[in-house]
């Protein structure tokens, strides 16, 4: 099983992150959509997540607030556009922190299960190549890789 995070650029506006998890896709899907699981793995280890709101339905919204030890907050918000449990999830997302708010980008996650292993591919589509490159250059791999390691621990406990 390939537990390494792979990041590719399928187009000038997109990048995709792929990793396998040793768990059925319903566990991975639930871990990504239920607040009691999301607070355990999403974000950086140095940040707390005092707000984790999820209304998982087409047109429903989510809001995640991360807080640093000095009180600085970073917020992810968005609206679900497609919810096909446990196969596919698509939503718009905006990132905000003091002095910066991103344009909305589209996040699409697919969950493919084979032999009890789930391959999660999350594709992020930005409105411009510059926005995509800026997101890629932000060090996202350094944040996502340990988060996905924590996600693997969460789904392992669900078995």
From TrEMBL:
* InterPro entries with a match to the protein in the record: ASHA1/2-like_C, START-like_dom_sf
Q: Which Pfam families match?
A: AHSA1 (PF08327)
The record ties this protein, via Gene3D superfamilies, to: 3.30.530.20
Q: Into which family does the record put it?
A: Belongs to the AHA1 family.
What organism is the protein native to?
A: Bradyrhizobium quebecense
Q: Which domain of life is it from?
A: Bacteria
Q: What protein does this entry describe?
A: SRPBCC domain-containing protein
Ranges for domain Activator of Hsp90 ATPase homologue 1/2-like C-terminal come to 22-155
